[in-house]
């Protein structure tokens, strides 16, 4: 680990432990294999499922058996379920079916929280017209939905009962033409909205510090505009101090940034959330774990990451050889691909001597060592899948792994991973 990074981390840790860190739900990414690697890297971080749309897992025309099958498809058999620190996020505008879904989900599995999605943005950005961020226009309906979640948890003993939470935005615009800086009226609207949520029984609100735009923005554009407004979130958290926990979400992309946010002694933000950072640099979760557990500056990162990667590879091999497979080979390879791409970025830092780029916490030798750990695991996955790379192994381990991922997951899939990562 470089001296610079050691100094930065030591400075972060001198602030005391971070209360909580949430790995945000990311559609098509936050499935069980990715959560498995996240957990191995940072057991203390709180992981989230993808947003599960009620119309997908429990359509109006289907029975309870269909719901049970949907949940088992996503979370595995209740008998083998071993995830901890997990939040189940649901998207719905139907209070009755939502209550039924929650009742059965908590009978089958244990969760830290049940979260209602009120922040998924424009239809063009993967959102919805009747739930997600559009619910922010309907405080009474949101209140009814939160109450339904709370009533769905009544069968669980108080000591084991998950919390009820809502993930929303700091504001909502119908279209891109309405975008403007938020003012006092917007603050009052959000204050009223969170008051409704609080009255219905939620104890936690995750606030994305960027207003939602319901129509007129592409997914990439919607990640950039409107502008982030952390002060808006800070002010809301101050208003609700002692009444409900507020988590800051949006734009967090490094440990240094978390350090800066933590250093504000006047802040009453209870925790932080990031999704794209964790996808682009999943191995940074080892450093996040150091912040959460108030450890000294981590000098054993390489061994910790090695152990996490090896344990994940063992998990992937087990999943790949089950008689009835729950995951495709590409789903099992995705977490390893994300780790390798981070290691390649860090490798390039040293190869190109780019002192203006983000400075890695791993040394050049550490990176080569960890790439070789993944290489050995990928060889086992290739043998397991009968897709062994018949070519002579390339001297460049990254090129070898790139070729192997294409063999295991398919060139089109890996190409899509690469394009999506470039947009994070």
Secondary structure elements and their pairing?
Elements: H1 3-13, E1 21-23, H2 32-41, E2 46-48, E3 52-53, H3 54-57, H4 64-75, E4 86-91, H5 95-108, E5 113-118, H6 139-152, E6 163-169, E7 172-175, H7 184-200, E8 204-208, E9 212-215, H8 219-222, H9 230-239, E10 245-249, H10 255-262, E11 271-274, H11 276-280, H12 285-293, H13 301-320, H14 329-351, H15 364-384, H16 397-409, H17 411-422
Parallel strand pairs: 1-2, 1-11, 2-4, 3-4, 4-5, 5-6, 6-8, 7-9, 8-10, 10-11
Helix pairs in contact: 1-10, 2-13, 4-5, 5-6, 6-7, 13-14, 13-15, 14-15, 14-16, 15-16, 16-17
Structure report:
The chain has 424 residues and is an alpha/beta fold. It contains 17 helices and 11 strands. It has helices spanning 3-13, 32-41, 54-57, 64-75, 95-108, 139-152, 184-200, 219-222, 230-239, 255-262, 276-280, 285-293, 301-320, 329-351, 364-384, 397-409, 411-422; strands at 21-23, 46-48, 52-53, 86-91, 113-118, 163-169, 172-175, 204-208, 212-215, 245-249, 271-274. The strands form 2 sheets. Strands 1-2-4-5-6-8-10-11 form an 8-stranded parallel barrel, surrounded by 4 helices. It is globular. Residues 1-14 have low confidence and may be disordered.
């Amino acid at each position: 680990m470089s001296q610079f990074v050691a100094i930065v981390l030591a400075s972060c840790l001198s602030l005391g432990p971070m209360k909580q860190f949430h790995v945000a739900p990311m559609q098509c990414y936050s499935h069980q294999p990715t959560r498995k690697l996240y957990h191995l890297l940072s057991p203390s971080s709180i992981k989230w499922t993808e947003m599960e749309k009620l119309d997908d897992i429990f359509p109006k025309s289907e029975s309870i058996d269909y719901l049970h099958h949907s949940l088992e498809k996503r979370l595995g058999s209740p008998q083998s379920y071993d995830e901890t620190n997990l939040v189940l996020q649901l998207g719905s505008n139907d209070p009755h079916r939502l209550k039924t879904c929650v009742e059965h989900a908590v009978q089958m599995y244990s969760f830290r929280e049940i979260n209602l999605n009120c922040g998924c943005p424009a239809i063009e950005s993967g959102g919805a017209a009747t739930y997600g961020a559009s619910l922010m226009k309907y405080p009474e309906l949101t209140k009814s939905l939160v109450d339904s979640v709370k009533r769905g948890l009544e069968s669980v003993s108080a000591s084991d009962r998950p919390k009820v939470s809502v993930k929303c935005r700091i504001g909502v615009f119908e279209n891109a033409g309405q975008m403007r800086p938020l003012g006092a009226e917007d603050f009052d609207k959000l204050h009223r909205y969170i008051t409704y949520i609080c009255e219905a029984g939620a104890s936690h609100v995750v606030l994305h510090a960027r207003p939602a735009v319901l129509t007129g923005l592409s997914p990439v554009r919607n990640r950039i505009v409107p502008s982030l407004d952390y002060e808006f979130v800070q002010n809301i958290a101050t208003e609700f101090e002692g009444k409900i926990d507020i988590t800051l979400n949006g734009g967090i992309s490094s440990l240094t940034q978390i350090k800066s946010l933590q250093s504000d002694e006047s802040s009453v933000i209870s925790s932080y959330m990031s999704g794209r950072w964790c996808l682009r640099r999943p191995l940074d979760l080892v450093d996040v774990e150091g912040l959460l557990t108030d450890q000294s500056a981590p000098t054993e990162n390489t061994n910790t990451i090695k152990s996490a990667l090896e344990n994940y590879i063992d998990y992937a091999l087990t999943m790949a050889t089950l008689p009835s497979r729950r995951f495709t080979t590409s789903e099992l390879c995705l977490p390893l691909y994300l780790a390798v791409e981070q290691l390649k970025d860090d490798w390039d830092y040293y190869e190109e001597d780019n002192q203006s780029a983000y400075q890695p916490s791993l040394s050049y030798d550490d990176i080569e060592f960890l790439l070789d750990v993944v290489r050995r695991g990928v060889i086992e996955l290739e043998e397991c899948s009968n897709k062994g790379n018949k070519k002579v192994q390339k001297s460049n381990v990254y090129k070898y792994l790139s070729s192997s991922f294409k063999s295991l997951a398919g060139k089109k899939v890996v190409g899509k991973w690469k394009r999506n990562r470039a947009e994070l």
